[in-house]
Specification:
alpha+beta, 3 helices, 7 strands, globular
């Protein structure tokens, strides 16, 4: 199972960073991952066991997958797992203080490929770390831009 992990520094306090990643991910995820077209939570809000439908455009195809929140420990940790489709991702965001006005975010991605997609496992092991680093850098830029522009409010604009 390919795994990648990257740690990035965000020039915002831990609570603001966590709020952007967890509570406002429905609007913020498309800001840092352009492939994401929409993120729609189920009606019960942010909670362990909550499910979210994510629609993304990959290689010209629009696909909707479901993920489930597997850990929620404000203001430090959010984890979720995609539960359908040929690629199952488990993502873990760990937010740690790096000073009064800074936070480190460690993003760990585990990918499990099923069916014929398993043949692509070596490719995902190679491209996964650079993709994780790219998306994490875009996440930092989106959080810093959104919170600077709105005086600390965590929702980013796409």
């Amino acid at each position: 199972m390919p795994q990648s992990q990257v740690t990035v520094r965000v020039q915002r306090p831990t609570a603001v960073v966590f709020d952007c990643i967890a509570r406002h991910s429905w609007t913020n995820d498309p800001a840092w991952e352009p492939e994401v077209l929409s993120v729609r939570p189920d009606g019960d809000g942010l909670r362990v066991g909550g499910r979210v439908a994510m629609t993304r455009r990959e290689s010209g195809k629009v696909v909707t997958t479901t993920y489930e929140i597997t850990a929620l420990e404000p203001p430090h940790r959010l984890a979720f797992a995609h539960i359908d489709g040929p690629m199952q991702f488990a993502l873990d965001f760990l937010v740690s203080p790096a000073g009064a006005e800074e936070a480190d975010v460690t993003v760990t991605v585990n990918i499990r490929l099923r069916g014929a997609m398993r043949l692509l496992t070596p490719l995902f092991a190679i491209v996964g770390p650079s993709r994780n680093a790219r998306i994490s850098a875009q996440m930092v830029a989106a959080i810093e831009a959104a919170t600077a522009a709105t005086g600390g409010v965590a929702a980013a604009s796409a």
